[in-house]
Amino acid sequence: MFTGIVEELGTVQSIAAGAKAGKITIGADKVLEGLRMGDSIAVNGICLTVVGFDKQSFTADVMPETIRRTALAELKGGSRVNLERALLLTSRLGGHIVSGHIDGVGTILELTEDENAVVFKIGASPQVLRYIIEKGSVTIDGISLTVAAVTDGWFTVSVIPHTRAITSLGQKKAGSKVNLENDVIGKYVERFVLLGAEEEKKNSSAITPEFLQKYGF
Description:
Order of helices and strands: EEEEEHEEEHEEEHEHH
Number of domains: 2
Strand content: 35-45%
């Protein structure tokens, strides 16, 4: 579990991402402090498990599902990536609850300056947009951001200079791909509502006006 508050920018040292699986090694500093084998690190919002590390970098395996569902395959040696260690129960929850499980890949359609901020307009699939609401939370490449506006084809977020300076968003441009994770609470609420509706339908009486009329009542 993560918060969407990026701890540092790492640098991809090597990546072998085939059609089915791969391995990635990332140079880092802060996230290596107290690191242990098997720990989780969010890389551009993707929860990856550490399978090896030294004083300057860590390595993680990449599953086929991760390749299919994220923009990880677009990374190359020298790419800068957002890094965050798993949340401690004693930490402040500065962003929102982030699982590190990517829901889809979005495309930056446009960047517009707005006083001291930059507005990112991001195109996404209907499956992702259904969970995005104005003033709600969304995770973009592992960064917890607030939705400024949303339509049936895109949404916008407003990014302050500090966020652009310490994350990979400062290097993004129109056409760049980004990993998107919806607010997990919205997905669970929808699931519970649908299950409740299905259960109510199963338990409802089969006696209807049509049923009574059919049998002469």
